[in-house]
Amino acid sequence: MKKRLLTGLQPSGTLTLGNFCGGINQVYNYQEQYDTFLFIPDLHSITVTQDPEELHKKIKEVVGLYLACGIDAQKTHIYIQSENLYHANLSWILECHAYFGELSRMHQFKEKSKNKENFTCGLYTYPILMASDILLYDAQVVPTGIDQKQHVELARNIAERFNNRYHGNYFVIPEPLIPNVGAKIRDLQNPEKKMSKSTSNPKSSIFLLDEEKAIRKKIMGAVTDNDASIKFDEENKPGVSNLLTIYSVLKNISIDETVRQFSGAGYGDLKKEVANVTIEKIMSIQEKYHEIMSSNVIDDILDEGRDYTVKLASEKYETIRKAVGLGR
Ligand code: TYM
Predict the structure, then answer these.
(1) What does the pLDDT average to over 251-262?
(2) Do residues 78 and 159 both lie within one domain?
(3) What are phi and psi of 77, to 5 degrees?
């Protein structure tokens, strides 16, 4: 039997090149090898305020982008988190097995709540919902970028604690799957930070639905350094290393090979080539995206994904509910 792989990308904005490299592209590369679950974590998106109409639109946009990036609905179960009530139900049980202290250590929570007078309880407990998404399906591997590794480790800890407390193999212990190259695509204007969907500066991120002109402009304007030598050194040359990383992922070649290809070149040449490969990739995704959005395949795929996963999730939830002593 194939091992099970699961991941999801929040519909809280248009997906970025970072989401492509750390998320979708990994699923694309692994979908033959694993029994693959790729869902839309819409419940996660409301941990911060969303415009309901916009969120609604983004959910289908994300599904369209999954398919346009080559995810094959015949091989991958695609479904919406909020259409399956067991995610939130299991999350509550897991909340009662997770500690305030361990959630307080989550980097993403610390970052997102920094200097905020008010933030939701959901923003704080969100990693438990993520654990529920993973543990509900006995996922063995969880491909993500580096920013989600700590959350997958929390899911492991909760699963181990639960299994020990109730003396059984109730949950499979999931492994994070972090790509060697592309686990943290950086913000083009501030390469210390990761590229993000929810940036306030549109020049910082390449979105998968950006126009060709905008992509070229953003990459040509990417912040680099004054050293003028093309080297891969994430600590001292994060901007240049980021461009090399993007090229390496999109061309599917190693970082060493990428650096070799640009030996003796200037930053202008590097940016031009990175812009070309990015445009080529994104334009081909967009062409498929528009085709998919004008057909009516999405609802059928989501119905099928929902029916399949609700059945699996209900069985798991029943087992867990009984283990804890709930119900009759
Ligand atoms: P999200 O929506 O922030 O990101 C989706 C995926 O993209 C990766 N990613 C990046 N990879 C490389 N460089 C970047 N700059 C970059 N930005 C984002 C993320 O690591 C992720 O793989 N909590 C999750 C969604 C989620 C989930 C889950 C994932 C909910 N439940 C269960 C896996 C399993 C999130 O907010 O990802």
Answers:
(1) 98
(2) yes
(3) -85, 120
Give the number of domains in the chain: 2
Q: Which of 3, 112, 203, 316 is catalytic?
A: 112
Closest atom of ligand 1 to CA, residue 148? 20
pLDDT at 18 over 90: yes
Residues 307 and 271 in one domain: no
In this structure, are 27 and 87 located in the same domain? yes
- Residue 328's pLDDT is 87
Contacts of 228 (CB under 8 A, 6+ apart): 266, 267
Average pLDDT over residues 286-296: 97
Give me the CATH number covering residue 158. 3.40.50.620
Pairing of strands 175-177, 76-80: unpaired
Token code pair at residue 218: 């953003």
Pair (165, 52) in one structural domain? yes
Q: Do 121 and 240 fall into the same domain? A: no
Q: What is the pTM of this model?
A: 0.97
Gap from CA of 39 to ligand 1 centroid (Å): 12
Average pLDDT along the chain: 97
